[in-house]
Amino acid sequence: MKKTFTMLAVAALTAAAAAPAMADLVVPNLSYRTGPFAAGGIPYADGFNDYFTLLNERDGGIGGEKVQVPECETAYNTEKGVECYEATKGTGALVYNPLSTGITYQLIPKVSADGIPLYTPGYGRTSAANGKVFEWVFNYPANYWDGASVAVKHLLEMNGGDLNGKKVALLYHNSAYGKEPIRTLQELAKKHGFTLAELPIDSPGQEQKSQWLQVRRDKPDYVLFWGWGVMNSVAIQEAANIRFPMENFIGIWWSGSENDVMPAGDGANGYKSLTMHGVGMDYPVYADLKKYVYDAGKASGAGDQEGSVIYSRGMYAAMVIAEAIRKAQEIHGTAAVNAKQVRDGFEQLEITEARMAELGLPNFGQPFAASCADHGGPGAAMIQQWDAAAKKWNLVTPFIAPDDEVLVPLVMEDSAAFAAENKITERCN
Amino acid sequence: MFYREAGEFKTSYVDDSQTFPIKFDRMRYYAVLVIGFGIIPFVINDYWANAVFVPFLIYAIAAIGLNILTGYCGQVSLGTGGFMAVGAYACYKLMTAFPGMPILVDVLLAGAVTAGVGVLFGLPSLRIKGFYLAVATLAAQFFLVWLFNKVPWFYNYSASGQITAPERTMFGIAVTGANTPAWAKYLFCAVVLFLLAWLARNLTRGTVGRKWMAIRDMDIAAEIIGVNPLTTKLSAFAVSSFFIGVAGALFFAVYLGAAEVGEAFGIQKSFLILFMVIIGGLGSLFGSFAGAAFLVLLPVLLKNVLVEGMGWPTDLAAHVELMIVGALIIVFLILEPHGLAQLWRVAKEKLRLWPFPH
């Protein structure tokens, strides 16, 4: 029995390690459709897959090359994420987008050594915005420190530009993800004179009673929230339970999807979150998606996530990746680009409003242009607010630009520390 | 026929007390060493190293460590994940504080630090037993994870609380960091595992191990015949924690490269290693290897069979995988409560009688 088991194992593992068809463009989708974070992972993966299906069905791929999107389940777990990376990198993978800050931290040194770009829109290591140090990592259009700064700017707006003496609590997922904004918020607290209380919530975050008890006792004026997965809906429910004024409760863009607010019902009315792109299905691209993907029965997953906030974000990420591949094909004059060429595509990528409109996403995201030194984009974000009666997110502000005066030195400091640790010499000089 | 003592004449006590008294066993052992050190390093690639061999080797070290404490000395521990975290953070602090120090020394010192912490948390074992000790070690698990999250000194004040292993070389070849070749990762872990397994084997069949087993079997009787419970229990905690600390250091530095305490060394890690020990077989070194192999390989195997082989959606495969692994664990425990090691023992007994069974 032992022998046959071993032989079976060897056969199966070899089959997995060999397999790839090298001809197509391969964009692995390290997704998570199981575990406590599946509520966010499923729509994202669906949006990501559906956009590439659309390109394949409508345009025959990118520049005539079909795109393959092999999926690998990570369950938001870093060990499984590493296994997925190793299993797929030999297939000619062009870019990784793991949708997990923890996995991103694991992959940054690995992709740098293997020469594969890593695209982490709105998550991951913030200081990767400094392209001088992080050659292979891109996190435009916005990152966590931008998000923290935009949230504080919104608070300033609400208070006529003065936050002196106010109390702000940061409620965060006790992981790399949740800890990212702390440094920025501390700096901003110094600058604007508010006090910052840090309340960590251990993963997966189903149990938050004690943190909300603390909120009730300390009575902060505002609560900023860095949550993900099941933790979001629990927090919003708890906030509703203690009657915390919802318009003073602001989540990062990962804490603002329909799945997060629906369970709390009317109690969630007025909850705010950041968003770095438009929401809803009023974009021409959905007509094409419906025609080529949904109605053709090729939708990814259960096909019930279309147009949701996180679905839109997965689609947005796929769109940027597709544009970067197109750019790489343009630069290098070949349709069958490799990972190194795609990196050039990412670095010289420019998304203009005209291009977005052409792609069927007018006024969806902010235009940006990357460069050798700038892998971070403009970092602006909007605030959306939940209307429980209409079951709909409404945008309440236009794009708010972050406070670069505070952020740039922090990015430089953090990336310089990484460069020193890893003996990286700055590029682009 | 060929698997028996008959015909093997020993003329010295050294021969008589060797680890593998039967020639066939000895040959098998040498064959495993030849394959492990002579063949695998030359054929291994990144996928095999990172998905299969390196985690297997590291979990085997951790399982041996826990087996010493739980299987040999009878002290139940649910703090394995926390102790692995101590090893990982100690290794990280040593690597960053003394960049010139050889990585092997870092790893072993990390083990020593963990041994100290283990002794500290082992002190309650002198008063409390069984379930109560399990709860006390569970407290250690949560306390240690909380500590590494709370005190920024441990992660060198990094913005995200992550620790990242800098590149360290051995004989000019990278062993940690992203530029490590697959074979170097594998070989480094394999050598450490070999040395530690050899140590464990010789400890458990000597005086120290016999004292542990005496305490496990009946502590009062052991005390009456002159086994000091204080030194015995604490030595079990120290040795066990040393192994687990080394495993944690390797897990962070060689395997993951970057880690976050809550996720990499949480309570589920403690349970995983406890399951390895239980499924493999309590009080058996072979069992530690078998249990680690079972729980590391099976999910990877199932994933590949279901997703790559049969083309199932990844979420369905992930759910079915959990169900199959869970069901297999239950089936194993019902059919063979003493673990895989007992199956192996029974097989050997049969082999001894073959081809003339009763």
UniProtKB/TrEMBL annotation, chain A:
Residues 1-23 form the signal peptide. This is Amino acid/amide ABC transporter substrate-binding protein, HAAT family. Pfam families: Peripla_BP_6. It comes from Gemmobacter aquatilis. Belongs to the leucine-binding protein family. Coiled coil: none annotated. It comes from the Bacteria. InterPro entries: Leu-bd, Peripla_BP_I. Keywords: Signal. Residues 27-389 form the Leucine-binding protein domain.
TrEMBL record, chain B:
The chain crosses the membrane at residues 27-44, 50-69, 76-95, 101-123, 130-148, 183-200, 236-259, 271-296, 316-335. Keywords: Cell membrane, Membrane, Transmembrane, Transmembrane helix. Its main location: membrane. One of its GO terms (cellular component) is plasma membrane. The keyword Cell membrane applies. One of its GO terms (molecular function) is branched-chain amino acid transmembrane transporter activity. It is a multi-pass membrane protein. It holds the Pfam family BPD_transp_2. It comes from the Bacteria. It is found in: Cell membrane. InterPro entries: ABC_transp_permease, LivM-like. Coiled coil: none annotated. This is Amino acid/amide ABC transporter membrane protein 2, HAAT family.
